[in-house]
Design goal:
By secondary structure, the protein is mainly α. The protein has a domain of 111 residues. It is built from 2 helices and no strands.
């Protein structure tokens, strides 16, 4: 029997590649979200350090308080921007997760089809081998039976041709 060949193998490889590509895109979005989160924490940390440094002084000038207030507003606005970007990135990640799930399902469907086709091919191979083994057995058995019949006929024909030897054989 010929070797197993799945007709949709190229499609299976393409779908598996698509799933890997979608997973890579999801990973990039996760990295992007992590960077946004890190930048937001840095702004929050810098704001806290600035407040602590200024408010920890024994006396503070009004200009320094105004500057701190402007910095707080600027940091708050930056944090809001980061939070908006995080929400947007989280929504993109969810969409990408759905694409990854669908791409994996598509690849797994073809993989199951390939497995089923392989099992059917293996069963057909097994049946073919069983049929061949049965035919060989029957052919050998038939040959042995014919040899046995031939020997029996040969011995019978010899016994019919050979003169009977004994006390009454000479008349």
């Amino acid at each position: 029997m010929k070797r197993f060949q799945f007709p949709l193998d190229r499609v299976l490889r393409w779908r598996a590649g698509q799933a890997a590509l979608e997973e890579l895109k999801l990973e990039q979005l996760c990295d992007s979200l992590a960077r946004l989160n890190q930048e937001k924490r840095e702004v929050e940390s810098q704001r806290s350090v600035s407040e602590r440094d200024l408010l920890g002084q024994a006396w503070i000038q009004a200009a320094a308080l105004q500057s701190l207030d402007r910095y707080r507003r600027h940091a708050r606005d930056k944090i809001r921007d980061f939070e908006q970007q995080e929400k947007h990135a989280a929504a993109q990640m969810e969409e990408q997760r759905q694409r990854v799930i669908q791409a994996r399902k598509n690849a797994e469907l073809l993989e199951r089809l390939k497995q089923k086709a392989l099992e059917e091919w293996q069963a057909a191979c097994d049946r073919e081998q069983e049929t061949l083994a049965t035919e060989l057995f029957l052919a050998r058995r038939g040959r042995e039976h014919r040899k046995t019949e031939f020997r029996i006929q040969k011995s019978e024909s010899r016994s019919l041709r050979s003169p009977v030897s004994g006390p009454h054989s000479e008349f």
